[in-house]
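ok trying again, last paste got cut off:
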Amino acid sequence: MRQATSKPFGEKDIALNKPHKMKKSAFFIRVYLVLLISVITFFTLYAYRNDVLDYWVEKNRIDPSPTLQEVENIKKAFLQYDPSQGDKQAAETIIREELGSDYDFMVLIEGTWTDTQSGVEAEEYYNMYVQSYISPMSSYRAEYAYSFSLTFGNDKAGEITLYPLFGEFYAMARTVCLLLALLVGLVIAIGLYLAHRHHLGSRITQRLMKSPALKWLHHLSVKLLAVNLFAVLLAASTFFFLYENRYSFFEFVNEIGYQRQDVDAVAKQVQTMIEEKQYRFHVDESSESANAQALSKDIAALIPEDLNVYLYDENTFYYAGSYQNTETRFVRGSMYNVNIVANPCIRIYPAHLADGIGELWIIYYPLVELVLPYVIVVAMIAISLYLIISLSFTQKKVTEIRYIYDDIEVLSNGDWDHEVFQESSDEIGQLGDHLNHMRISFSENMEKEAEAKRANQELINAMSHDLRTPLTSLMGYLEILQHEKYEPEQLSEYLHKCMEKCGQLKDRADSLFNYFMVFSEEPLELQEISIFQFMEIVDNMKEELELNGFHIAMDELSQDALVEIDRRQMERVFDNVRTNLMKYARKEGVEIKLFLDKRFTIMIKNSCKRQSEAESNCIGLKSIYKIMERHRGKMEAKKEGEEFILFLHFPISHIA
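nice, full thing came through this time. structure:
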């Protein structure tokens, strides 16, 4: 049960109001947010890997070029190599033997050689990629390419270009980015846990809501609008951030070696078809075009539409193939317009025709098929952020209403010490606050009613005793008179005692009447008078006491002030004081002192009779206390030995 405390609006102890147990849905939302932030952090950091690489190369911490000795060894090894034969495996073996098997590179051999197949001595340009697989060219750092000239085994000049791939560096960069992303996720997770445990979000929100400048946010409709606007802005900014930085994701996917799985199978089908149909490169000139067209048609029947296939003869001249104009999707502004996506991959396979071996080039865009799913996922992430924020706010308000409903049920069962849930400053929070004020007021009224019942019961018991004593005596005297059990000379004495007891009964009845008149709380007729005018009531009381033999010493005030009183009620106050003094005080040593500071105080001090305590039922004091309370004043009474001191404090308007 939450503790029953009454604090000013907006200053409640949140720890008492919010449940500590985290719901499963809230837990999964936090896990989702931590993972999402970690993934975004990873790809954001990964986007700067090339900047780090450039810095390390600049500081000579990474050397992308082979040594001069390695270059000389490559030149010597290629003195026996004829590139016109297209032996890629031999070329790759030479490179790896000289640079090491762990060297990351992409090798391009280009130059000129003499075409003797046609019987014409002519210089023809050629180029040859050593690898059978070439990733998108945008993934190579061309600025770090190293080229050198050499003479091949056919005594023709050529050039070799080595493109470093920095495989080890990028692997290390992925590891470091992953560790940093996990660290950020861990920090966020700890922060969310501590914020939930210590209610930091609610505390910060409540402090902000206390600002007068944000008073307009106390309305639920404004909060709902603000939350939805924030959710829309966050979702939109997240979508555009991830969309504009999609290149980082696709570069990562490319670097970890993502490939289409059907390319090798398609190449195998084309190779088998060429061999089974025994196509030839060299046919008579009249049927060469028809032969190439037939071959192209058969190739097109076997491959998917998004693959381009080119067949080159043994001299690396294009012979046949099938290709689509897929570049139109990479226009500016298109979601496919990303360098790494728009650059094709190339796979090179041997093609065994009846009269020679050519090269089957399959060119494709492996990352294209990931673009649309990526955009869909990004859109789903943005939508999920909007839903998380808006639904969390809605769920929070529904939970507040449910808590208030449960608390009202507890109150309806009679537990008025149970505090109603109140956390926010909007209409729901104000409802809880008003219910708490109502609960406290009702509880106080119930306590006052119970106290009044107790006081009335005590009064009835006291008055019963006070009335029974003189009434019993009166009945005894009347019985004596009725039965004439007295001497003639005693008649006057018994009648006098009967009158005395009747007077006591009248005094008790008058006291009881005055008590109920005071506690009936009839409307006050307040009027503002000076203290000098107020002292007329005190003087009247003093004069009546002096007529009854009291010796009274009273101060005089030199200053005046205004007090607001109901004169008739004040007369009752001092009438009660007078009655109590006459009943319970000794006639000597009565003092009345006056004080005027921030309030006007009257002190009345007297010595008590020995039997006064036994005879007192405190009805007069209770009446005085109630009247002073209704005048926003205060009554204090204390007894020190045989002395009784009464203080009456009155609020004042101003001192004259």
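cool. Residues 471 and 501 are 7 Å apart (CA to CA). The first strand starts at residue 105 and ends at 114.
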